[in-house]
Amino acid sequence: MFDFTGHIALVTGAGRNAGAGMARALAGQGAAVAVNDLDLGRAEDTCAQIEQAGGRAVPAPFDVTDLDAVRAGVAKAGTDLGGTVDVLVNNAGIPADIGDMGYGPFRDLDPAKWRTPVEINLFGAMNCVHTVLPGMREAGWGRIVQISSGAGRVGLGMGVALYGSGKSGVEGFIRHISQEEAPAGITANVLALGLMSNAGRGTDTSGVAAGIPTGRRGNPEDAGAAVVYLASPEASWLTGQTIDLNGGSQTR
Fold first, then answer.
1. Catalytic pick among 163, 178, 186, 217
2. pLDDT confidence tier of residue 100, bands split at 50, 70 and 90
3. Where are the transmembrane segments (predicted)?
């Protein structure tokens, strides 16, 4: 069960944190993994972890908001791994410690900063999906897993309106893709993560953390296990869904 032998996965934003956990988990089940990150060194670190565990991975450093770079990066990954990407995990985002996620009350945000969170969370995902779909359709099989957040469906008073807007948009996009591509053997689902172990920089998450029923934040292994199922051959009858992985936190 959950055997990915012969499959090639691309995980974006996989240089660290949850993305690295997703890449490691897929490789642990037999997938060859293209590890994307904007930073080559981080991508290489995750590849080294996978290889040390007996898996196979190559770094794929490109900016998901640059369509030409995505096309070139996916093509190179396919060449390096000897096939076509048939599992896509869209996880790329803006870590709070290296970029401006647009945190703060919307009324105070400079309009010049509105685009970046939306471009990476929505258009970055679109670029990757558009690039891998032809190969998946030709193969008659594919898995698209979009990483999102409860902030895409729940209004929060903690200054994440721009982030939530991007996530809301991409969840709608994935629902439409699931319907368009289901006849071709391609599933598309959303995994909405709750508060993760690396969260908290840039905004106050203490209130959210205190309300998690399981009493802890999520970790990379939690995210990796869920992605393995959603991307697996066994999940062929699950598409167009948003799955909350959040320690039991309620979404509305």
1. 163
2. low
3. none
